[in-house]
Amino acid sequence: MPQGSSHRVVVIVDHGSNPFELGVATELFGLRRPELGREWYEFGLCTPDPSVRMHSGFFTLTGVAGLEEADRADTLIVPNRPDPETPPSPAVLDAVRRAEQRGARLVSFCTGAFTLAAAGVLDGRRATTHWRWERTFRRLHPEVELLPDVLFVDDGNVLTAAGSAAALDLGLHLIRRDHGAEVANAVSRRLVFTAHRDGGQRQFIDQPVPVVADTSLAPLLEWVRARLGGPLTVADIAAHAAVSQATLHRRFQAELGTTPLAWLTAERVAMACRLLERGEVRLETIARNCGLGTAANLRIQLKRTTGLTPSDYRRRFALRSVG
User: In this structure, what CATH number is given to the domain that contains residue 298?
Assistant: First the structure.
């Protein structure tokens, strides 16, 4: 999303939609954020009927636009399904197909992947949904390459998130894609939410909340973050934690759903992104300060993570002001 341009995010709310995902979209894309010093998203809701009853009848949504609003969306967030085996209304599916045909970005949270699949826009693509619905999804939509054990999948202009909380991860990923790492970090701080969970991390982890606080990886992660510019290896991290590398690997998988090396590389790339956004132009300096070694490795890792070269990334996300 080029700075200074307007990007409209529209959420389709259908009968039975979950209020949590609607709240996530509103918080991330709908609230004004003047402290960021840049134009934010335009945001709107639309429904297939004048009155839509939310999940479990918690409340009824009225007074919003009809589905014609979806035709104005640059990013369209499709409705999730209280019963994924019940197909969405033809009107909703038509709105999704029109959005795809004109090149809009399509996003689903949780069982919203069923809506995208029913519209045919996931055929031959990678996608995810809540782990609980893996078998149902595979049965109904065998033409989709389902990745059932990740937080979210970015497949270009179609992005899908797993369970409800993963909607926050995917939403912050979209902000990072549109505005850069520094802005995404600023938004996550406002939310008091972890700044970055990579989409490849697992949906279901063995120990989401440690029973004993002192056993958490949090102190170790902070120790590593303070030393990213040094010649830090997984063996060094394991030694500091006084555990074997195999034990460290198991702890990372249990608490973070990723490997120590993947986490370390992601942290280094994120730091490189922030330095590029702040105007640093010397790639060797950035690579050295982030522990990526050489400018060549920086280019490779940044391209792999963001799809952009360092110069393209700097041009796109150079900061004016972030509060």
Answer: 1.10.10.60
